[in-house]
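Sample pair:
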Amino acid sequence: MLIEHFYIITHRQVIAEGAWSFTLKLNPKHALYEGHFPGHPVVPGVCMLQFIKECVEEVREQSLQYAKIVSCKFLSVLNPVDAPVLVLELVLKQGEDGKLQLLAEGKAGNKPEEGIAFIKLKAQLIEQ
């Protein structure tokens, strides 16, 4: 993990061919929040992109990097105190160009059907 002790993966499950669900638990006491923002912590967007990539790396068992972010929508502010549990749903397809196609959606809460969406991402990744 790039940011040590920022989150832990508490659950991982295959939900369909090429699709996975990850449950993450954020550490609301992480030092990163002292600067982003004291007393009102917010998960930085770049950290969201990082933990999504790290989940994909776990599935693929290889180091990856973003080659292209086709679209990225930050749908709501993610406060690690109010919403420490996140569910990520990832869909991966190998493109004909050799790039890994990723569709990701993140929701804050224990159950995706009840959670509040905080990110939708469409990206391409390549081996690092």
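The helical segments are 45-60.
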